[in-house]
Write a structure and sequence with these properties.
- There is one protein chain.
- The chain folds into two domains: 236 residues, Rossmann fold (3-Layer(aba) Sandwich), CATH 3.40.50.300; 60 residues, Histone, subunit A, CATH 1.10.20.140.
- It is an alpha/beta fold.
- 53% of the residues lie in helices and 8% in strands.
């Protein structure tokens, strides 16, 4: 392949993005950029589904375990870093491979963000006080009223994202989601955006199996270790499926069985929200993985990349 492409793999959770990205990285002898908004945090390994240590030793990965759980990082940071990482990879004569299911991260690569106003600490403090008095549900209802589109996208009651979205609305009178609409979808030249999907029953089986394995691998022990380091439960990094429920279990709010079922249910709901958002994107190549071997899937993506290179 004379022209090195950019291949972006996305799709709902548990569709197999990591496995396919590893297969492609081996073929191209190239690194992988993680487009996951939680894998960038240290210590959050099991619950975020990071590649295992052997894979990370074999294949260089960008944006994995680079931040402490209490450090801030947003989609604008990712968009800027992605450009820098891509230049570094291309200087090595290798294709850019990205894999992840964070919708805002992926969308920032195909629809540049409008400039957002800086954080207003007074607004954020006011919202935090409301949440403390009335509960986070009141914040969620307020966001659903002023910006139902963005409220649908959030992975559960994520205070960091809800506060920021409402902060932008309070400053501008515009829904946070509207800042992502003024520029059209436009894939950069020689870029392949692939959305992986599976038949619903198979996807749910994979989600259930993954959650069971997370518990077997020690998710609760991982979360206890993070809390024992002094990181507080309301951090942005811990406001995600798997970690929220594990914290509730550790605090006695859920039994182990209740935690297990709640993680599975919330993960299935998250996968549905992801798929709903991916369907809005234009220029997406859909790849149904149901019943297909890893070898066949890899061959299919390589053919798609070769065809794109030939057309470029």
């Amino acid at each position: 392949m004379n022209v090195t492409p950019t291949v972006i793999l996305t799709g709902p959770t548990a569709t197999g993005k990591t496995d396919l990205s590893v297969a492609l990285a081996r073929y191209f002898n190239a690194p992988v950029i993680s487009a996951d908004s939680r894998q960038c945090y240290k210590y959050l390994d099991i619950g975020t589904g990071k590649p295992n240590p052997e894979i990370l030793t074999e294949i260089p990965h960008y944006h994995i375990s680079t931040l402490n759980p209490d450090e801030s990082y947003n989609v604008s940071d990712f968009s800027d870093d992605f450009k820098h990482w891509s230049k570094t990879i291309r200087k090595q004569g290798k294709p850019v491979l990205a894999a992840g299911g964070s919708t805002l991260y992926i969308e920032s690569l195909i629809r540049p963000l409008d400039e957002l106003p800086p954080r207003n600490e007074t607004n954020l403090l006011e919202l935090q006080n409301i949440a403390d008095r009335e509960g986070l549900t009141s914040i969620q209802k307020k966001l659903e009223k002023v910006d139902p589109e963005y409220a649908q996208r959030i992975d559960g009651p994520n205070p960091h994202r809800m506060f920021r979205a409402l902060d932008v609305w309070m400053q501008t009178g515009r829904p946070f989601s509207s800042f992502h609409k003024n520029r059209s979808f436009s894939l950069p030249k020689n870029t392949l955006l692939i959305c992986l999907v599976r038949e619903r029953t198979e996807l749910h089986q994979r989600i259930n199996a993954r959650v069971d394995q997370m518990i077997t691998d020690g998710l609760l022990e991982e979360v206890r270790g993070i809390l024992d380091m002094g990181f507080v439960p309301n951090l942005q990094s811990l406001q995600t499926v798997g970690y929220r429920e594990a914290i509730d279990c550790i605090r006695g709010r859920l039994t182990t069985d209740e935690m297990l079922e709640k993680i599975k249910t919330n993960t299935r709901r998250y996968a549905r929200r992801q798929l709903t958002w991916f369907r809005r994107w234009k220029q997406t190549a859909w790849l149904d993985q149901t019943g297909q071997s890893q070898k066949k899937l890899t061959e299919t993506v390589l053919k798609m990349a070769e065809q794109l290179a030939a057309e470029t």
